[in-house]
Every structure is written in structure tokens, then in C-alpha cells.
Amino acid sequence: MRRSHHQIAFSRLHRRVQIDQQPSNGKTIRTARRLPGITSATTTLCFPLLGVVLTALLAGCASDLSTPRVIFLDGAGWYTGDGPVRAGLHKAGFNGPIERFGWASGLGPLHDHLVVGPSHPRTGALAERITRLRQANPNGKIVLMGLSAGSRVVVCGLEKLPPTVAVDHVVLLSPSISSRHDLGKALSHVKGRLYFTKSKQDGILSTACSAGMEGGRPAGQAGFVLPDRPSRQTKSLYRKVVPLPWRPGYLAYGWDGGHVSATSSEFIRVVIAPRIIDDSPHPLDQALVSADAGVR
After folding, report:
1. In the chain, what are the domain boundaries?
2. Is 190 helix (H, G, I), strand (E, B) or coil?
3. H or E element that contains 6
4. DSSP state of 289
């Protein structure tokens, strides 16, 4: 009996079943019968393969929670800086994974820049990710890095952490989060320091509003400022904030003061990596708030 083209295609895709068409009282009846020997062969092949897959998945889950680890968040839109950041950190001797944490919607830079804020769903996801890592590695090093509008996702994610969970260091590259954003709650979840780059030559931040339209100039252009009438505790927390202002010497390392060139692999290797690999304060750094509570 001649089979239809539908039957031929179906049999090629599903070799285990043979489908036949038979006329009966003017109607076409389709019957299926299993080909002999296929079931046992398939079972014999599938179980060893399933074991291999499960082993790989379990190994992946274990390594997925390893530390030391850097979690990097790109800015709004389609540009990605994790390549040069990863290269710079590895060249400097950072021996852990550099994880890219996606948050952009794919709707474009303007959309992502304007809508980012505490209600963005990825801020909660970031907090959950950090919490899992810290639970698995109570003493492991966890560093957050955010570029441009990714800086606000980083800060809002820190603000959503449980009281006992903290990261080691934070690095904000060309941050577009507002200079007036109160960092107090986020800083309570940072053991070491929060570094941020700042440049008057950043042409993008000089004309852009702050991420999420929070008000105030972007911190990557104006620098962070203390909240009005700060408490003693707030001043103490802000001693963790360390600005890295652009200077001509950074041209040799690829950062020309521009927005995305702060992710240059050489700048990351020479300037950023030593500050997160070694927990000791860098001798050239000056915190935003000095020991006598003076603002720099």
C-alpha cells in the first residue's frame, strides 16, 4: 500500500514507530505499531547518556557557586564590556570566574537607562544570586562590577540583600546612578570598599540624566555626595567609598576619560584588579569621607 507524504516524513523523524493507513468503510484508519528491537536498544543507550548528563550538570552546579568570583553587569543597551574586563582581570592574576549578569531588556539603551531602578526584577535576582554564593562560600571573595546604568542595578541589588549577607568589594565604572543616591544601605553590605570612576571628559554622562531619572547628575561625572545631614553611622559607611578620578596618566592604559573606555583591559589590569585582589587599602587612594569625616 502506498503511504502518503505525511507518513513518510513522520516515519523518518520517528524511526521507532511505523504508521500504516488502511481504508475501512470509506474512511481512512491510521494504526501505529512499534518496530521490534528498538525499545531495548534505545533504553540501553539512554541510561548511560543520562548518567553522563546528570554528572555534568551536578559538576556545573558545584563550580557555578565557586569563589573568588567577580559578577559583572553591563550598561544599558547592546554594548558589552565583559570581554576586556575579563581579560584584564585574568592578566592581573585573578584566578576566579568572571560572571556576566545580564539585566538589559533588549529594547535599547534609552529604554533600559530610563527604567532601571529598585523595582527592576533583575535587582532582586542579583540579590538572590549573591545570597546563594555567600551561603555556599561564607569566606569566599565576591566582587560586584557595574558599568554605566548597570551601577544602579548593582546598588539596588545590594540594598535587597539579607542583613547578614555582604560582598567584599564593589567597582562602578562610569556609573550613571545619581550622585545624590544614598549609598548607606548598600554600603552596609560591603565589607571592603566601593570604587567608582569619575571623569569630566565623559561625553555621554555630561549630557545624560541619571539612571532611572533619579535626579542629580550621574555619579561618574559629578561624583557621589553625602546625603543631607548625615548621621555618624552614614559618615562611617561612606569611608568605604573611594573615587578614581580620571587623570592623563590613564591614557597609557586605554582609559581616555570616555564612557566605555573605562573597561579597557589594561586599565582594568593595572588600576582596578590590584584593588580587588588585595584587600589592603591602595596607598594612592583617598576615601570620599576621611577619617575626620571631611568630604573630599
Report:
1. 5-58, 67-277
2. strand
3. helix 5-13
4. B
Cβ pair 194, 169 in contact under 8 A: yes
Helices (H), ranges, 72-147: 82-91, 109-115, 121-136
Q: What is the C-alpha to C-alpha distance for residues 229 and 241, in angstroms, rounded to an integer?
A: 18
Per DSSP, the three-state class of 65 is coil
Does domain 67-277 bear CATH number 3.40.50.1820? yes
Grid cell listed for 257: 576619560
Taking the C-alpha atoms of residue 258 and residue 50, their distance in angstroms, rounded to an integer, is 50
Contacts of 260 (CB under 8 A, 6+ apart): 75, 79, 81, 147, 148, 174
C-alpha cell, 46: 539512554
- What is the bridge-based pairing of β-strands 27-34 and 17-24? antiparallel
Query: Rounded to two decimals, what is the model's pTM?
Result: 0.78
Angle at 171 between CA 77 and CA 70, to 5 degrees: 85
What is the residue-level pLDDT of the chain in tens, covering all 296 positions? 444 444 444 344 344 444 445 555 555 445 445 444 434 444 344 434 444 443 344 344 445 899 999 999 999 987 788 899 999 999 999 999 999 999 988 888 999 999 999 999 999 999 999 999 999 999 999 999 999 999 999 999 999 999 999 999 999 999 999 999 999 999 999 999 999 999 999 999 999 999 999 989 999 999 999 999 999 999 999 999 999 999 999 999 999 999 999 999 999 999 999 999 999 988 889 999 986 655 55
Owner of C-alpha cell 516524513 = 9
| Cβ neighbours, 10 Å, residue 138 | 7
User: What is the C-alpha to C-alpha distance for residues 79 and 36, in angstroms, rounded to an integer?
Assistant: 55
